[in-house]
Amino acid sequence: MAGRRGTLGVALPDETTVPPGPRRDFLVALHRLYVEAGPPGLRAIAKGIRDDSSLGSTLNPSALGRILNGAVFPKGYALRTLSTWLAGEAQNHGTAAGEAEILRRTVEESWQQARPSPKKGTSGLGGAVPEHPGTASASPEKTRSDVPWSDARDERLVLGGMLLNKDVIADVVEHLRARDFSHSAHASIYETILDVYANGDPADAASISARLDKSVQVQADQSVQDYLDGLVAEARIANEIAELCAMRLVDRAFLRDLVLLGRRVDREHVSEVEADVDARATAMSTEMSLRRLLKQREEPDQGEFGWEGALDEIEAVNSRGIPTGGISTGFPRLDYVIGSLRPGQLVVVAGDHSMGKSTLALDFVRSCSIAQGLASVFFSCEMTDSEIRMRLLSAEGRVPLFRLRSGGLREEEWTRLARHFKLAAALLYIEDSPRLSMQDIRERSESLSARNDLRLAVVDCVQLVVAPDIDHDGPRSLARSLKQLARDLKIPVVVVSRLIAGTAARSERPPSLSDLEPSLLDEADVIILLHREDAHDKASPRAGEADLQVAKQRSGPTGVVTVAFQAHYSRFMPLEPTDPPTA
């Protein structure tokens, strides 16, 4: 090494100045990666590492130069970041197949041997960070012990057992997902086995080898077919333990996710401490990340094998006429058309000013939390908490709203109110804020989902919510965020929306989809347009009636449902069902 320079212009340390052992092996391997990487200059390398969001390192040109010249032996995350990034660059710039990965492992093993042991009482989080599934590594060789990583032997036994016996596939798939494997090659083999099995074909080593993507790499000195044959041979020796190994993989993968989450939080929040940010917001962000991880682990992906739930729902609907998992709106005819308020849906209730949009949204909440006993949250940008509770009492107790506000209640009205103090026990949460943001809605909804099994969220009204972005894409981003919230929490999200055109501009005609914000029109699963003729014509023969026009529905028919409007009780009521709604 003496007297030479790498192709990028960094002087290599003299072999005579570096004693034999892991430290020198580490420097030699690191320089091989450095020479292979391709992009010229320390500054370019430092910038590449800094810009790679998956690495989170702040290596600068000065630090890189000192490391590559042998003046500094890096510690912890800096070493792992540098070697992984350089290996990826070497691979991207045409290094011989597998060579970049071999170099990366050489660096890693040298580092593992040379690094000092953690001091007693420390967490060890400053040590080398394990590779996350999906990075450059594809070679299923031994893993490290600095985190609860998946055991490569367990992974081989699971895959071998699946190749050996198709009954093992049915047992394992109930517990294990592809992302639970720590080696990307093993994850690819697992997914291919499931695909072949789902098609009814024999999932043996020969058929899996033929179906595997050519980019999947196993051990450098073995073909894919030989490697799969080895998995089968190993599984024969350790018979009947594949399912046990699968359960161990699931547990270790969960622990791995927790460790990686902890390290990410540690890395991100150090800068926040220095910046003196709001500690409560930081804690809330961490709690949300943990809840998402827990929810993800509680509900494994079933893929091709998740048909049982769909068949159960079809049977329930046909036998009882009630969609399982949905929330009744409180209007049977509307439930008939839209199949109730479904988990993961974004439902828009739109109409002109003073049509009763907020009242209809509160009717949905009453049906959910009072009639069905399920948790719901009502986000209001217009009404105060007190006003909302007055409306709920009026609707439930059949006491005129104006009398609740102005006084003069009759004795029978007091009696009806007393009977409806059960409202206090309802799982109905009200959030009133004139400056409600999308972040507020998500944080509160996720918290209620984790603690109270939230089943419905209502936002009134969407135009007053502070959008995630302040540029021209704000409304679209907001609509997309609301839709994503419904999907993430697996609940219906109902949003109340104003129309673009005013009543006068539309000549008092019923609203149409063209009167709605384009972003909501694109993202919504169901759109209900509310219209009352008597709001414009007091002499209308349809006084006291309202039309709920289902103008859009992704998975069902459109139609008009007519309901009664009882303004004095601040509620809508279903009319007697007759024929199916008109198309």
Characterise the protein shown here.
This protein is of the alpha/beta class and 583 residues long. 48% of the residues lie in helices and 10% in strands. The chain has a 9-stranded mixed beta sheet, sandwiched between helices. A hairpin with a 4-residue loop joins strand 8 and strand 9. The longest helix has 34 residues, at 242-275. The radius of gyration is 31 Å and the shape is elongated. The relative contact order is 0.07.
Low-confidence stretches: 1-7, 116-146, 300-305, 578-583
Strand tally: 9
Order of helices and strands: HHHHHHHHHHHHHHEHEHHHEHEHEHEEEE
**Spatial order of the strands in the main sheet?**
3-2-4-5-1-6-7-8-9
Largest sheet: 9 strands, mixed
Question: What's the average pLDDT?
Answer: 75
Strand content: 5-15%
Secondary structure class reads: alpha/beta
Anisotropy-based shape: elongated
Straight-line distance between termini: 82 Å
Q: Tell me the number of helical segments per DSSP (H or I, 4 or more residues long).
A: 21
- Give the % helix: 40-55%
Rg from Cα = 31 Å
In short:
This protein has 583 residues and is of the alpha/beta class. It is 48% helix and 10% strand.
What key attributes describe this structure?
single chain; 583 residues; alpha/beta; elongated
Describe the SSE topology:
Layout: H1 22-37, H2 42-51, H3 61-68, H4 76-92, H5 99-114, H6 152-164, H7 166-172, H8 184-198, H9 205-211, H10 224-237, H11 242-275, H12 279-298, H13 307-320, H14 332-338, E1 346-351, H15 357-371, E2 375-380, H16 385-397, H17 401-406, H18 411-419, E3 428-432, H19 438-452, E4 454-460, H20 474-489, E5 493-497, H21 518-523, E6 526-531, E7 545-553, E8 559-566, E9 571-574
Parallel strand pairs: 1-5, 1-6, 2-3, 2-4, 4-5
Antiparallel strand pairs: 6-7, 7-8, 8-9
